[in-house]
Write a structure and sequence with these properties.
- This protein is an alpha+beta fold.
- Helices cover 34% and strands 24% of the residues.
- It has a 15-stranded mixed beta sheet that branches. Strands 21, 22, 26, 27, 33, 34, 35, 36, 37, 38 and 42 form an eleven-stranded antiparallel beta sheet that branches. Strands 4-19-20 form a three-stranded antiparallel beta sheet.
- α10 packs antiparallel against α19.
- The protein is elongated and about 155 Å long.
Amino acid sequence: MDQAAGGKSHIPPPGIKRAVDSYHRQLHETHGVQVVPPSDDNNTGSRTGTGGEQSSSFQARRESWRDRVAASSSPLGGNSPLGHVTSFFDSERLARSAVYSEGTYPAQGPNRTRWPFLGSIRSQRSSRRPSSNSTSPRPGSEPGEQPNEIELPWRPWFIRRRILVLFAILFAALIAGLEVVLAVSDKNEGLRRADEVSRFIWQYGVVLVFVVVAALWARVEHQAATAAPWLRMMHAPTEIDKSLLLDYASKFPPWAMIKAARNNDWLVASTLAVGLLLKIVIIFSTAIITPRLTMASNHNSLITLEANFSQSNAGLQNIGSLPYFAMVGLQENNMSFPNGISARAAYLPFSSDSDDFMTLNATVDGFAGGLECETASLTLSKVRFMDGNVQMNLTAETSNCTTKQTILSSHFSTTGNQTLPRKFIVLQSGGCNGSSNIDSQRIVVMAGTLGLDMDDLQEAKRKSSTTTIDAKLSNSTALVCSPTYAITKMRVSRNPRDLISIWTVDGAQNTTLDGVKPWDVAQAQFDSYLTGTVENDNSFSIEDQSYNREAVFHTNKPVEAALALRARETGSLPELASLQEGSTLERLVDDYFEQYTAIIARYAMMDPASSRSTGTSSFIQRRLVAKSPPIHLMAALLAVCLIITILIVFLAPTKGFLPRNPSAIADMAAVIAHSHPLVECLRGTGAASEEAIRVRLGGSSYTIGAEGHEKLGDDSLGYFHIFGGKEPPRNAMMRRAATTRWRQPVVYHGLIRLLYGLILAAVIIGFEVSLRLSEKYGGLRTLENDNAYLAWTAVPALILLCVGLYLSELDWWTRVIAPFGRLRKLGEFYETIGLNLIDVTRPIAVWRAFRIGEFAAISTIVAGFLAALFAVASAALFEPMPVDASISVILRSEDFFSNSLASSSEDPVCLDCNNDTLAASLILVGDAPYPQFTFQDLNLPSISLNNQDHPLRDGSNVSVTLTAIRPQMDCRLYLSNEISTNITLTTSDNIVNPLRIDLRGETCRGEKAKDRSNAVLSTAIVSALRDGSQSENSTFFGLGQNKTDSQCSDWLYVWGTLASANSKSVSVSTINALACNETIEAVDTSVHFYGTNLRIDPSDPPIPNHLSVKYTSVAIPDLDYSTLLNVTHTGLLDPFFAMMNASQFAVPEDSLGGSTAADAGVVRSGILSQHSVIRAQSLNSKVRRHLTSAGTFPNVDGQNILSGVDPSASVSEAVPLISATLFSQKIRLEQNMVATRILQGIVGAAILLHIIAWIFAPRNKLPRSPTTIASVAALLVDGNLLRILPRDAQWQSRSEIEQALRESELAERFGMDWTTSRIRKERDGRRVKIEGGTFGIRAFAPGERGPKEEVEMKPMRRPSGRPHGKSRVGMVLRGTGTIGSDGNQRRSVLVDDDDNNNCHSLDEDRQTSSQDRSRSRSQRRSTRTSGGVKELVKVWWAP
């Protein structure tokens, strides 16, 4: 370059201090430094004028600067950090924005950074500062003269207040959601049915929700931790350990939280506390949803209504004896209420389409009867003795009703027990004032004591004639009652066997049936007692006999039934004296009437029907249940999170504090680019340890700020600075700090990696072993309560969460180190200094790592994601399952089936009683349950638990095989061609128009006329049931009879139809017959008994082993079908066929009247089934025998009553001890195989990714942890990146910086290494790489591929034609000159930084045409790297 060129460059001579703009001139003047402008005759006037015009502006800025300095405080006493800044910004340094003078800081290397500009804290354009009490501009001032404060735009997105408010709302929503889930679960007995899919969805889904929330909050934790140093420096000057070297992000969260609390960084401590609480919430969330057996409800369960209330009173007029015997069964035989009957009410019977329900609730029409009674006066009119009875004529009178009543008592006619009073209680019907009008009919209840003249009674009995007897009535009470009833809505709850509860629906409207009046019901009640079977029945007579010691007591059957009801309900009979009290008597009668009329309503006021409705069924179901303890605990923890989040909202920064996000290396470089004091202090520390940096930067405090500047041409832009740092000694060289190498994070250690891989493998193996044990033993343990399940679920989740923390930590460190690893290999902008993997979501991080082929980062990021799923996968790992735990127990037989009908006085049996046919009738037509130890045709021996070591419980189940007995019928079916009939239109043996029937195979005949045919029945009475489609002249008949002299078989059944009945042309239309011989057989039967009373569940019936059948000698008691309940009027169907027509074994009328073998087969099946039930009840009542108290067989008339199953059996064999299995349902904790495989798959994938990450992990060559501001800044300072950044890089986006660097042709690739390196050959022949210079992050221009080897600069020959002794501007290459090695004179010159290879000489550079240089300069000036192509170097001329 010639002298003319040098003059035109306007570059001051070396050593001349020059302020390059008004800003630096202001700083010089502020600090008392005289700025002597260079000698320039052409510009003297203009510069003087300029300086004078701006003197007032300098004063204003001086005040502003001093105010800023005075406002700063330092924790170090008088050593203000801004004092250091001011001292460091002295006149010489500030005057040389682009040029350094001799004798200050010599260059430390060829890449000595030249700072583009130095800004200050505040820039004011006003000529003077406004007063403190003025908020408006000074009048007359220019609008642009107001103070211009730079608004820093960036602050972390996740710690902005609106985001934190959203988190607070989210926490509140989670709390509400948890409580709603608990409320729904409690209301519906669970959330839903626990099938495999729904269980996984709920248990995995709930935990996944909180894992996602925790992952989102982790962004808040990270951004709060990384922002903490900047926030501290923004608020106040801060010492080095709490600012530039502050590191929360890499610490273990609990320790980081404690450290933050000690440093009063409450924003960091609070966010970390919430993160820890969320991890605890995740652990407990695995146990809030559990499958459990519970009572579930289906509110839309389909039910079938089996009857409707009839609008006709036909059933009441033909009531029969069924209501009475049903009452007997309920009171005396402990029968459960049949479907449709309850205490005091009747309801439409219904059934469910499902058999697995536990309770069934439905709202149906119900019947409720009652009495409205008035107390009446009772007077005795006359007492007579007549036909062996005492007849009392009484009058009951109320204000509007008088009735005449008659009581006939055989008890009072006895003359014994004359000292006992004669008391009576009767319930009769009566008409008011003798009226027969149905509305005038009343129920009259009378009670009193009758005083008889015993002499008159004895005289009357002696005469045996109707005689009046003197008598007196005392203590009398009478009630005149009007019957009522109502049809109303009732809520009924029942289980498959019994009624649970019934109540009237509140607000239900009461109605009555159109064709049924209240007295029709009352009259049916009286009529049911008038059948012959009822009159001869003494089932309730025992009740009035209980008072025989107190009085000669007379009642009638309704009162006997009322007393039996009271005794059953209260456990004892009422006091006899109390029965003569009006209130007691009224309550007794009213209870009876309600109960009895309910039975009548069920059997006589309902017609069979089938209609659909809905009810609520409750059933035992395995459902997903929300547990309240963990939910409340989680809600409490989330409430704490909510409170802390609200506090964080107030702690979060409200304004930006940085010009950009400093997450990437390029971002950090842009942020610190104008922090000159800090950079000067960090020179030479690129490869230093953190402790060396602490020593270098210690003793000062640091703060941050920014200001707009005119150089940028935009009032909204400026320079951001980190202020602070010790001033380097003047005229002294900054030595490079000692080199160190940082040991990689602990998670990167090979031994730790190997140990972790083994731990993950142990997790897989451990759960596989526990799965095998669970399958082998039916579970891992028995759960006694929910606490055990909570522990078994939460503890594995805690362990897996801790195991997963390693992968999360490894993921974090890999993402932190990834850009530095890429720098060691040289890479483009987006994969090195522009790479940000840490402050982004996992999907974005994976995509960025995939773009650059960073397989280690990809593996650890995905592995970290899988680690977050460890706790999720553990949620469904264990499940409580109901299992039947079996225990061997010994059962003791309580009775045996005898070979004789005889019974001892110790164990009497009534052979003449009809309890057997009564029980069978109620089972067949009354829907009554089977008595204990009987089921259908089976009779099982009574059993009990031999010891109480394992007592029976409600949920227990005893499985045992018992020897049962059952009837066996060997039958022959006769069709019409084998039957002869003869109808005689006459009366024979009181049989009108007898139909004589003879079977071809039944040849046995008797001598009597009626025995000369196999069967004889009357055809005169036609009252059989007809189908509406049949003609009036076709009538069904049926007859079943036991063995008589007229038949050979034990049982004979004949059925068919008559044509033209009730006419002289009557004939048999169809006829079939069945003849059977009966025996009793024994069969081994497998049976399950349930509950404490060892009941048989109809849904689990006994199962006979038909291969074990054997005949027995069990006695067969007589069985008379005529004692069955008469469910129809006397007609052509005898009681057996009448009952079969109404029972569960009813056959279609087409089959009953059919003539084919198929039709006859259907009837045959119904006959045998019904007979088996009747015979089973007969055997149950009459052949069971018990051992004597001495433990021997009972003896009657010198004969032992032995076992009919095996007469040769001993006592121990007849009443054996039986081995059984007691099943009690237990809840066992089982390990689910599918959930185990899911967890093992996730852990296995994590192992694979862990290995891949280990293989592709880059070697660590960092000198220290890159997690602090100072650590990254040191690497940048000792590189060249700060020098080539655009002037306004702090305000540019990352892509704009990348584009600017690319266009500058100064940065194509980026790396991190030493400045120079050379290869040295050792004596042993090894080649060793010697690294030198500084260690930092550098940009390499096109063609450069790494650090240069050291080249010593040699003196060059002085070029000819140049004046000797003047400094010249020359072009030199990069390199390191050896300073002070000779006596040559040196000068500082400003040279272009050429990017050519380091092999050119100065002479070669001179040969470059000025046109090329001009084009190169022009092209570089077009970039945004203003002034970034000049470098101050030391050159010299050779002598």
